[in-house]
Amino acid sequence: MMDQLPALQVMLPMVAAPLIVIIRHPFWSWLIATLISVCACWVSWLMLQQVVDGSIIRYAIGGWEAPTGIEFYVDRANAGVALLVSGLSSVVLVYAYHSIKRTVDTSKHYLFYAGWLLCLTGLIGMVITGDAFNVFVFLEISSLSTYMLIAFGSDRQALVASFRYLVMGSVGASFILIGIGFLYAATGTLNMVDLAARIPDTESPRAVLVAFSFLTVGLMIKAAVFPLHGWLLNAYHHAPIAVTAFLAGTATKVSLYILVRMFFSIFGDEYSFGYLLLNWVLLPSAIAAFVTMSLVAIYQTDLRRMLAYSSVAQIGYILAGISLATQQGLTAAVVHMFNHGMVKATLFMAVGCVLYRAGHAHIPSLERMMSRMPFTTTAFILSGLGLIGVPLTVGFVSKFTLINALMEKGWWPAVVMILASSVMATAYIGRVVYLMLFREARESSASGEGYQEVPLLMLVPMYALLALGLYFGLFGSQTLGIASGAAESLLGGYQ
Amino acid sequence: MKIYARQRHRVLQVITRLLVPFVLIFGLYVQFHGDYGPGGGFQAGVIFASAFILYGLIFGLQRTRRVLPPSVLRWLMSLGVLIYAGTGVLTMLLGGNLLDYDVLAHDPLHGQHWGIFAVELGVGVTVTAVMVSLFYGFASKR
Amino acid sequence: MDVLGLFNYWVVVILMMAGLYILIARYNLIKKMIGLSLFQTSIFYLYITIGTVDGGTAPILVDDPSVVYSNPLPHVLILTAIVVGVATTAVGLALSVRIYEAYNTIEEDEIRAANAEEQDI
């Protein structure tokens, strides 16, 4: 069974989703979704064990070997991303039970969890597939279910946010489709390994260039890279908070991973960064993202919206690492993908706990949260420190690596900008922490004094993720080791 | 003559009654001919669903729902995906890769035949169910 | 360069731009969905054009070995993309219906005004 792991990874959630629709029971559908997600996580852990030494799994679907058929291609980089996706899905699903019970009508629970599993199928499939067109198909599976999940949000603005994301997301996916079409026209193949081999001596370099631009823009929309991030803010703000926690940790990261795979493995860094000078597009966009978005985040009055802006800023850090196109820069990008995924999911889960008790996440009315909900507040503060990048937290590990990589290349202005945006992050997290810890509650908000701590089923997954984050902060060398291996695989291209 | 609820659409109703069986048979032809000729689950599913949609347009949603209740549709929708995925799981259990039909029968050619048949059947069932339930969904709004 | 020989690609470009224009310039959600469909249809057309072979016939195997076939792969890909497009349109329209039920309008500027009002209260 060990050689069937890549297929199992995709098939598990895909089989479970229709089963949930048939069973149609709120509790059982949650239980099945959670168990399947945990199984998928275990499978991806086994897969990572197999490839962590640098070997590669190539799984031919239907027994048709690679350039003819569709294959799953698993190496260090995407096994890690698959683990991140399925792991976060498991943790957030455990957490989701109470929070979804509160906001979603019980008769629709089965649809919610089936949609969640389809989203998981799509995300994992996108990560491990080795076929360019399959990326598009899995991307659409995950996107369509994401639109549905966002529309489950409690207020009517969720519908508008979902529609806006649908329009933006479909345009992005269509751009990717055009790009794949041009690649196929230029090379006559869809297999990624084969594409990488055939692109250098293609007869129509202009078609390859067009394909490259369409793919880049399309993936940038899906990854919410700075000027194309418009859909993300409303979607994160109005979606059910469990969905936000899941998406913030995984969806944009998966698109970024595909982007990296495309830049370095399919087209090669010689083409992307040597010939097209892509770093002069990516780096300014990254810097603009983490400076302006951190600045805007300071002035937000809703906790979810503040964190959404901060997400765009963090994507900027990852992009800065990618734009370096060096081993160290890519290591920083990969490590930050993981660390930010964990930290942001924890933060959104903490916000979900506040929402669960208070019913809103209005920042000025968060006074004295510490005395009302001590565990939630502690989790928020600790992961907030991780977001800022205080030493001994995960944020520090990735930011330190990123700054090192930038200095190695001599890009001092970018380093200064990162430090400036860290100060701003301190401001927007610090403002909330100050309110939570020290500000005396105003008389008018005394009515909320009776908040209790949230159910254990919400606290445990949040603290599990927090503990994992703290562990990786203290022992950063472990993730760095895997990440630098992943970066090596990505930079080395396909063998 | 009680079954013809609205007398002024008599021509349409009679023609529809005549057409629906042929549309259904054509759908089945496209479905089961799909592994050797042009056709397949997607096309067949849409053709099959179009028969129900035509019936619904002429005779009204109420009567179509009695023929094909939404609860059955939900079953069919999941069942189709399960047939597809189940074929994949079966091939894996029989020792092949995912959707490697060779292992389904003693002769690889027969295996391929059975495999593509099952997969197309799953696709057809799901597409029919999804198309009809889309029609129900939008038609039931005011 | 033979401009008329690229007739198909001109159609693709015009359809694509028309779709994008509708998508950007119209505030009506249903019209936005129409624009999106148009945009996606142009991509299907692009794929079909890529797949043609000069003098090729429909890719159905016949006994005569001298027959030239068109490339069937883009057709298969586009069949998948069409299904995806239908699904996207269905989700978009379903969302529009829900938005209409919630806001009583499908004009984006009116929805935005309603949202702004909500935030002021």
Instruction: Kindly provide the radius of gyration of chain A, computed on alpha-carbon positions and rounded to a whole number of angstroms.
Output: 22 Å
Report the β-strand fraction of chain A as a percent range.
under 5%
How would you classify the helix and strand content of chain B by structural class? mainly alpha
Q: Find the count of extended strands of chain B (DSSP E, 2+ residues).
A: 0
Helix content range of chain A: over 70%
Helix content percent band of chain B: over 70%
Instruction: For the record, give the distance between the C-alpha atoms at the N and C termini of chain A, rounded to a whole number.
Output: 25 Å
Describe the structure.
The complex is a heterotrimer of chains A (495), B (142) and C (121). Chain A contains 20 helices and 2 strands. Chain A is mainly α. In chain A, helix 2 packs parallel to helix 4 and helix 5 runs antiparallel to helix 6. The longest helix of chain A has 32 residues, at 327-358. Chain A is globular. Chain B is built from 5 helices and no strands. In chain B, 37% of the residues are buried. Chain C is mainly alpha-helical and 121 residues long. Chain C has a single domain, classed as Orthogonal Bundle (Helix Hairpins). Helix content of chain C is 72%, strand content 0%. The chains are: A mainly alpha (495), B mainly alpha (142), C mainly alpha (121). Chains in contact: A-B, A-C, B-C. The A-C interface holds A 133, 136-137, 140, 144, 147-148, 151, 156-157, 159-160, 162-163, 166-167, 170-171, 173-174, 177-178, 181, 184-185, 190 and C 20, 23, 29, 32, 36, 39-40, 43, 46-47, 50, 73-74, 77, 80-81, 84, 87-88, 91-92, 95-96, 98-99, 102-103, 111, 115, 118.
Offer a quick outline of the entry.
With 495 residues, chain A is mostly helical. Chain A has helices at 5-23, 26-51, 76-103, 109-128, 132-151, 157-187, 192-198, 205-223, 230-238, 241-266, 269-275, 279-298, 303-324, 327-358, 369-372, 374-388, 394-409, 412-437, 456-474, 476-492, and strands spanning 57-60, 71-74.
